[in-house]
Amino acid sequence: MILDYNGVIGRQPERAQWQHLAHLADWPDNDITTFQSAFWNAREAYDAGQISDLAFWTQVLGQHPGPRMLRELRAADTAMWTRTDDSVLAVLWRAHRSRLPMILLSNAPHPLSDVLDTSDWCQELMTRAFYSARLETCKPDPAAYQYALEATGAGDAGRVLFIDDRTDNCRAAEDLGLSTLHYTGQPAAIAAALLHTTG
Question: pTM above 0.85?
């Protein structure tokens, strides 16, 4: 099984966390909508490890953030992506008893990757963890999936379940022959898909 992190295991940030990040960025009028637009416009290159955190935040802000602001932004940005869904983890812990290989495949920048690697669930549940910043490519690039697929040890891609909350990532996995589950927030759907895959 290959799993996405954010939107599956990881919870989406709350509005208060976005507001906090925008406040640290000294964003005009604390306008979350325009802040998120600037954030996401620069994010793919950052997630892919193509630009540094300094370059990322300089693009978002339109100016150099300065050392102190950069540290605060990096810490807050990382923290807002680290909340996990206990219901999903409970399903994965049950699946872990069957010794099913679990591979994490996440679009994540270096600071977040380093934190996720130290989490108990990642160290104990995941056979391997792959992050876009280290692979230097993001899903839905087929190359990202190939790393994860090889790590499962499965000779047949159709026997591997890929779970992601984004339809474009699922489509790319389907094109490579993987079974997919487009996750929409129901942990029971993961349990059912695993039962079908391992049964």
Answer: yes
